[in-house]
Amino acid sequence: MKKKTAKRWVDLLVHIILALASIISVFPVVWVLSTSFKPESEVFSNVIRFIPEHPTLDNYRYILTFKNHIFLTWLVNSALIAFLTTLVGVFLAATAAYAFSRFEFLGKQTGLFSFLVAQMFPGSLLIVPLYNIIKSYGLLNSYTGLVLAYSTVSLPFCVWMLKGFFDTIPVELEEAARVDGLTPFGTFWRIVLPLSLPGLAVTAFYSFVTAWNEFMYALTFMNREELYTLPVGLRTFVNEFNTDWHYMSAGAILITVPVVIFFFWAQKYLISGLTAGGTKG
């Protein structure tokens, strides 16, 4: 009886902690959403209101139309860069992870360890060397330079993620395909990749979000306003005297919409991919 009572109290405590953690996590997002519908007078008012007294869509109208619709230009820039980063990142990660999963070669463990160590360093440490490399090749203020930088940053995690997933695919399937006459690349393309769709979805989502939300590299490598990505573009609402929080909030909400749509569209693959990638059968 005492054990059951103690277990109930423990369960209650755990649920309270989880509820508080959920509130703390969700509150900033809800507050930004609320602020995006507030007029400027309410945003800078001394009275704090969670629900707007006079909700308005003017902030969204301004964001979408100011400076000759430049926000839409930033949206296209971000979408194109994120798409290309996802394409390049998934291709490089899939081929590298397959090699680490299936082949034995000199330096295999060292290579895997180097990918793991690379994840331990903050991305800011790579800004200077990447800047020098991109500048030396004349790729500043170009999509190519930013895509290469983002692919470099996301590659270590993607390789580890896909390697764990490839390890769960029975080698016998590939051997049977070889017997039927498929080449090594044909086996990889026609057998392994279709079976790896959940893992590829996780990798693609990570690469996409990395490129979509990134700020430091885009700010460093792009100095022309028409080439800004969305996170850098929002910086224009911050100046030395004040910050237009109502416009910033509206822009932040608009930025999250494509990622949320992508997540709900691919959530089935994402969930199964995260689960399968952590086990080896």
Give an account of the 3D structure:
This protein has 281 residues and is mainly α. The chain has helices at residues 2-36, 40-43, 58-102, 108-118, 127-136, 143-166, 171-179, 184-195, 197-213, 216-221, 230-234, 245-276. The longest helix has 45 residues, at 58-102. The chain is globular. The chain crosses the membrane at residues 12-33, 74-100, 112-134, 146-166, 187-209, 245-266. One of its GO terms (cellular component) is plasma membrane.
Mind sketching the topology for me?
Blueprint: H1 2-36, H2 40-43, H3 58-102, H4 108-118, H5 127-136, H6 143-166, H7 171-179, H8 184-195, H9 197-213, H10 216-221, H11 230-234, H12 245-276
Concise structural overview:
Helix 3 runs parallel beside helix 12 (245-276). Mean pLDDT is 87; it is low at 277-281. This protein has twelve helices and no strands.
Give the tags:
single chain, 281 residues, mainly alpha, MetI-like fold, 2 domains, disordered C terminus
What does the radius of gyration come to?
23 Å
CATH topology of the largest domain: MetI-like fold
Query: What is the CATH first-level class name of the largest domain?
Result: Mainly Alpha
- Report the CATH superfamily of the largest domain: MetI-like
**Average pLDDT score:** 87
Count of helical regions: 12
Structural class comes to: mainly alpha
Poorly predicted regions are 277-281
Strand count, sense and barrel status of the largest sheet are: none
Helix content: over 70%
Overall tally of domains: 2
Order of helices and strands: HHHHHHHHHHHH
Number of strands: 0
Q: Hey, roughly how much beta strand do the residues contain?
A: under 5%
State the end-to-end distance: 41 Å
Shape category = globular
Tell me what the CATH architecture of the largest domain is. Orthogonal Bundle
Membrane topology: Multi-pass membrane protein
Family: Belongs to the binding-protein-dependent transport system permease family. MalFG subfamily.
Keywords: Cell membrane, Membrane, Sugar transport, Transmembrane, Transmembrane helix, Transport
Protein name: Arabinogalactan oligomer / maltooligosaccharide transport system permease protein
